[in-house]
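It is worth pausing here to work through a concrete case rather than discussing structure prediction in the abstract. The textbook approach is simple: state the sequence, then state the predicted structure, then interpret. We follow exactly that order.
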Amino acid sequence: MNDINISRVSEFVLLGLSNSQELQPFLFVIFLLLYTGILLGNFLVILTVTSDARLHTPMYFLLANLSFTDICVASFATPKMLADFLVEHKTISFEACHTQIFFLHLFSSGEIVLLVSMAYDRYVAICKPLHYMTIMSRRVCVSLVLISWCVGLIHTTIQMSFTVNLPFCGPNQVDSFFCDLPLVTKLACKDIYFVSLLIMANSGLLSMISFLLLGISYTVIFNTLRKRSSASMAKARSTMTAHIIVVTLYLGPCIFIYLWPFNSYSVDKVLAVFYTIFTPILNPVIYTLRNKEVKAAMSKLKSRYLSARFLQS
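Step two, the predicted structure:
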């Protein structure tokens, strides 16, 4: 036991997205622009929803919280990745590595539950329209958001309990731009087969429950829409299509990374970039471009801002 403590790994080496030094400045610029777009796009959604009284509804309240969660998902590792593009040796301390793992699972699992809450909101709005404001009260909406964070905290605490005491005394190279459980646990100085099963079971349970709830809600919603008029059906279908796209873009890579046993490290990198960078920047685009109310509110916000600047000048 003392030998393990003496040789305990104090830091990990992040191999990043590419070994080519010539590509580092180019990747830095690309991902800096993407990260800036994530922050601006999602902050704009939050600002639009909070500033326009017409958007003070349960659906947009949950959408604003989704944008906040997207900012968190993109921010747990992207600033570190940007800094690593500018240095030759990309290292991260043992504690910071486990902190990344903690926040990754906190934010990502919380977002999955929040997406389920948004599906429930659409179910109530379409299937029980007369009772919508009663069922989806302010208290219920806040409770749904709090539940998403609580589930995220429970999930990440369980995941960390499987790995925090693993001995790391040998290889310390993580073939990614951030620390994640499947990659870090493989570096442990012991047989991790049972630990890997527990990690997959925990992630699989959350994914399967979420998938089943989403599938049930979508099935009921589309069966209800078939009986409605074409006008109401078209509007509801547009909202549901946007939600299904977001769910697919987010859940797909997560399920593939944690539950598919044959994926390679190179595939892991692509999927990791997808759900930590591209999905958070696509969410505001998908919801705003397909939503006339949000676009109208953004135009009103822009006009108000330009008028204020004009009066100041």
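Step three, interpretation. The longest helix spans residues 94-127. The radius of gyration is 22 Å.
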